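User: Can you recover a sequence for this backbone? Please restate the input before giving your answer.

Assistant: Of course. Working from this structure:
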């Protein structure tokens, strides 16, 4: 059996890896995309070399409050299922087609909603919470649609659909990479909540006390990019960093010079105020520019990649958008790195910011380190003493033994700050950002091979009808619009114009200062 908790090997990391690349997508739990990775049927069978895999099994369930035909209340047992699996009712098969836009509408994902999903309680003891049991996903989805706000959509849906999880056939790119490199089946987001605090943690190892996207959306903490820049300013000529993403709008946007351009949009720059400095403009670019640098073998030391968050090019996989464009994005980034002359010295990490309300059966552990040295409580009194829900994390490099199911060798599991710790250790950066990244394990132990594996792993995403694909404005778009309104003083338009407003405001805000 391969050791699923390989010991850290920082020397191997430093001697092997010259480039770290992270692609972070949106709002999917581990079970939602990879829970059926190793099914009890060919060709997936069991993990290689007798490894254990913390995936889904038939019979897992969540309760749902229901009323029978006699008007008597009871707890319905809602089973986990494969998206599109055959169903029968009174001996007859009923329609249950594969749906690539589940869950639809967008589930609740904030701190209180996540509490309910994990504990079946909205308010959880702060210091010594009872163990999570992950049995509140269906009921919370029902509650969100019954009592929730506009962010959950106007059309009701079957709350049982939150228990539908994608199969390897429906996620062929992510699944094949997981089976041929390393999949971390105990990797957790850093906060049991939503997008912005978790993206804060992957950049700064803190959310400065916030557990929700509001009321303050921006984070003024020092980032890993600033830490790298400090080394560069101090004379390190071997270091560099870049953040790459595409235009958030479906239309071409004119800049102030009246020219159409291949604009980029960076949520990272928008929310991390210490990246607003105009001198950093050259550190931001498009994904096409990233691919070009792959082809040139000229990658930054650390690259962070962002999906397209909206419009006809949306590929972030944020529910309820179609997951297939995101699969195409993963394939494109992987192929760009794979075909580069620096593939063997590049560590590619594919992960997701948070679970987005999607079902996962593994209770997140406690024992998380509060980023603040004084263990200060944050929003809603949270002490940052427990991790968030599991999210997919696949790590790619030829020095990784194919099919490795990797877990942390310490009692502290992998989380978003493991990315920061890996970058710090790989490039010999001085110090740490907070107490969280100081304690975090890195990914150095995953590089278990003495010589690189020469197997050329090819991936092929599923096709979809681009013209027929639907794209809706979600809570993240509205949040970004609110941030832009605060920064620029301009008014947020109706949703039909929201994405163009965001892109135009972004261009005005950052390009006007360069």
């Amino acid at each position: 059996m391969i050791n699923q908790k390989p010991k850290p090997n920082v020397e191997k990391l430093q001697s092997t890896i010259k480039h770290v690349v992270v692609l972070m997508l949106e709002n999917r739990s581990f079970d939602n995309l990879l829970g059926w990775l190793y099914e009890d049927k060919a060709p997936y069978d069991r993990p290689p070399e007798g490894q254990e895999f913390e995936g889904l099994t038939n019979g897992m369930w969540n309760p749902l409050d229901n009323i029978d035909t006699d008007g008597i209340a009871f707890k319905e047992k809602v089973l986990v299922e494969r998206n599109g699996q055959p169903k029968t009712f009174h001996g007859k098969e009923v329609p249950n087609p594969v749906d690539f836009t589940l869950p639809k509408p967008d589930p609740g994902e904030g701190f209180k909603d996540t509490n309910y999903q994990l504990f079946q309680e909205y308010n959880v003891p702060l210091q010594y919470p009872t163990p999570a049991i992950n049995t509140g996903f269906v009921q919370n989805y029902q509650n969100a649609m019954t009592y929730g706000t506009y962010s959950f959509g106007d059309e009701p849906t079957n709350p049982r659909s939150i228990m539908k999880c994608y199969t390897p056939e429906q996620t062929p790119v992510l699944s094949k990479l997981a089976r041929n490199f390393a999949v971390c089946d105990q990797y957790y987001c850093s906060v049991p909540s939503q997008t912005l605090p978790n993206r804060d943690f992957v950049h700064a190892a803190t959310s400065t006390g916030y557990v929700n996207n509001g009321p303050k959306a921006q984070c003024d903490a020092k980032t890993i990019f600033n830490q790298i820049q400090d080394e560069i300013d101090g004379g390190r000529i071997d270091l560099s960093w870049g953040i790459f993403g595409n235009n958030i709008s479906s239309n071409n946007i004119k800049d102030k010079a009246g020219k159409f351009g291949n604009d980029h949009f960076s949520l990272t720059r928008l929310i991390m105020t210490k990246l607003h400095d105009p001198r950093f403009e050259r550190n931001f670019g498009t994904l096409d520019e990233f691919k070009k640098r792959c082809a040139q073998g000229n990658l930054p030391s650390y690259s962070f990649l962002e999906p397209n968050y909206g419009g006809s090019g949306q590929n972030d996989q944020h529910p309820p958008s179609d997951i297939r464009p995101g699969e195409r994005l993963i394939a494109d980034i992987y192929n760009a790195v794979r075909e580069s002359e620096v593939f063997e010295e590049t560590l590619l990490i594919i992960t997701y910011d948070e679970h987005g309300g999607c079902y996962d059966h593994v209770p997140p552990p406690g024992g998380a380190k509060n980023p603040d040295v004084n263990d200060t409580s944050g929003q809603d009194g949270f002490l940052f003493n427990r991790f968030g829900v599991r999210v997919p994390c696949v790590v790619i490099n030829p020095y990784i033994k194919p099919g490795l199911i990797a877990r942390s060798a310490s009692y502290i599991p992998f989380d978003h700050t493991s990315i920061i710790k890996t970058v710090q250790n790989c490039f010999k950066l001085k110090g740490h950002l907070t107490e969280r990244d100081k304690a975090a394990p890195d990914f150095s132990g995953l590089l278990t091979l003495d010589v690189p594996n020469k197997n050329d792993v090819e991936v092929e995403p599923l096709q979809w009808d681009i013209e027929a694909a639907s794209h809706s404005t979600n809570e993240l778009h509205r949040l970004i619009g609110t941030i832009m309104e605060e920064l620029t003083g301009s008014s947020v338009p109706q949703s039909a114009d929201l994405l163009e407003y965001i892109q135009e405001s972004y261009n005005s805000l950052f390009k006007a200062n360069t």
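That completes the design. Residues 149-154, 251-261 have pLDDT under 50 and may be disordered.
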